[in-house]
Design goal:
disordered N terminus, 506 residues, mainly beta, 6-stranded antiparallel sheet, 46% strand
Length: 506
């Protein structure tokens, strides 16, 4: 820009930020001219943008050049600067800046320029005036113009924010020029911004860049990783593509260019994204990918209701066992490909439980139980996550004791169950049936009890419970058959409380 010369003689060159069109009508009122400039001057105002192509967040420089020499050269005779007594020049530009570019704040723009962020309109105004005071030989125009150049140039940095190809459409410019020099009268050249504007040619620039897109959400399970890809527009150097997580404690990342493998560590949520570094050092980021790390749903499979301990027909002690799995499934019903470790416990020695796989255990019946036994499987690293099942352990007696008894008619009816002993003492399948084999006139069996009929001797058979229904595929224990004698006497027991003697009753 031209600078303001300061002189007590009043010769001024004015460069002002505010130029209004009213100046055109007052200061530059049209006058007759011996040599008017009547046609546009080629190259009088030029707008350039450089470079033609660069990366996002790079600076594209917008330059306006106003060439006073081009206009002076149009004056007939092309007089030297020494001959000019008066030059007045005001200039103005108006154009819209594409929304994909940002400009500095108005306070940082060249003097006389302003930018409206809402309308995207950039305006610029400047003015120059110099004159030779009458009676003086000192020509201020000559000195000032030679000193400051006849070309006024203004540069504005534009920051590109979005990849793409963008066109700066034709902008408008106008100026009012008036000059006097001795011997040739006046020369004027008016151009109005509205009625007869000069046009700045369209200019297209390319902003290189990439848009990175990743999925929005991803659900993972502890113990099972996954991978995801980033979609990138345009050609990129994958070595400059990185992945980042907001919380490295929840997931681990292993980057392989446009693909990342995600390894869950603990339950929780985090956000990951892809980043790409342009050659100019600017880093562009993808959208956020929300990663939710969960624990699987748990269930015990199968859930056995009972296990048996018994002696088979060959005399071999059988302890039934079952393999159970703490199944770990995802929301879609599929199984976790890498099951989590499980710890197993039993609430009773009636069942032993041993780990036979990551999430598998073998449960074995050891002896009869009083009530159901709880088998609990819980995740090793998350003990609060568990499942349990109840199992009855049934033990069939291997031997029974059925002593002979002496009863008195006053004892009728008589419950014999107190006299029977089942071996081992942990046997808990103690059902049996009674039948009078001999002496049916002496006693009878009624609702599981002995009912005395008359004094005498009777032989009673006892058979343990038939549990074949619990072994639909065969096998299982054989019922035990035994007999005992009952001697029935008249009267009342003379020695109540004394154990009934055992032995032969003949």
């Amino acid at each position: 820009m031209f600078k303001h010369p300061r002189s007590k003689y009043g010769l001024i060159i004015l460069i002002a930020a505010v130029f209004i069109l009213s100046i055109y009508s007052s200061t530059f009122a049209k006058k007759d001219s011996d040599y008017p400039i009547t046609t546009p001057v080629n190259g009088e105002a030029i707008r350039t943008i450089s470079p033609d192509e660069d990366w996002v967040q790079s600076i594209f420089t917008l330059t306006y050049t106003f060439d006073l020499q081009k206009i002076l050269n149009e004056v007939k005779g092309r007089p030297s600067l020494n001959s000019y007594e008066l030059i007045k020049w005001n200039a103005e530009i108006v154009e819209k800046i594409p929304k994909e570019f940002t400009l500095p704040d108005n306070k940082d723009l060249p003097e006389g320029f302003a930018f409206n962020k809402e309308t995207r309109e950039l305006t610029g105004k400047f003015s120059l005036e110099c004159m030779k005071e009458k009676g003086k030989n000192d020509n201020k125009c000559n000195k000032v113009l030679n000193k400051n150049s006849l070309i006024s140039e203004f540069s504005i940095p534009l920051t590109a924010t979005t990849p793409g190809t963008f066109t700066f459409n034709s902008g408008k410019f106008a100026y009012t020029f008036y000059a006097e020099h001795s011997g040739q009268g006046t020369t004027k050249h008016d151009r109005d911004i509205n009625d007869s504007p000069g046009m700045l040619s369209s200019k297209t620039v390319t902003v290189k860049g990439t848009t990175l897109t990743v999925p929005n959400t991803l659900t993972l399970y502890v113990g099972e990783g996954a991978s995801t890809n980033v979609d990138a527009t345009g050609d990129i150097d994958s070595s400059n593509l990185k992945w980042e997580s907001d919380n490295d404690g929840i997931v681990g990342l292993k980057s392989n260019g446009t693909t990342v493998s995600i390894f869950p560590k603990i339950v929780g949520e985090t956000t990951i994204r892809a980043t790409y570094t342009y050659p100019n050092g600017y880093v562009v980021k993808s959208n956020d990918l929300k990663v939710v790390v969960k624990l699987p749903d748990l269930s015990l499979i199968p859930k056995p209701n009972e296990l048996w301990v018994y002696q088979d027909a060959q005399g071999t002690l059988v302890k039934q066992s079952a393999s159970i799995t703490l199944d770990q499934t995802k929301l879609d019903g599929s199984k976790l490909s890498g099951p989590l470790g499980v710890d197993w416990t039993s609430s009773s020695t009636a069942l032993s439980v041993s780990k036979t796989g990551t999430n598998v255990a073998t449960v074995r019946a050891e002896h009869g139980s009083q009530g159901s036994v709880t088998i609990l499987g819980k995740l090793t690293d998350y003990p609060g996550q568990s499942k349990s099942t109840l199992i009855d352990v049934k033990e069939y007696p291997q031997l029974i004791s059925t002593p002979n008894v002496i009863l008195y008619m006053s004892d009728s009816p008589y419950s014999y169950s107190k006299q029977i002993t089942f071996y081992p003492d942990t046997a808990n399948v103690t059902g049996y049936g009674l039948k009078v084999l001999e002496g049916i006139d002496v006693l009878k069996v009624e609702q599981g009890e002995l009912k005395l009929l008359k004094p005498g001797l009777a032989k009673v058979g006892l058979v343990t419970q038939d549990v074949s229904a619990s072994f639909p595929n065969g096998g299982g224990p054989e019922p035990i058959s035994q007999y005992f004698y009952v001697q029935v006497k008249d009267g009342t027991d003379p020695n109540p409380g004394v154990d009934t003697p055992a032995g032969d009753f003949y």
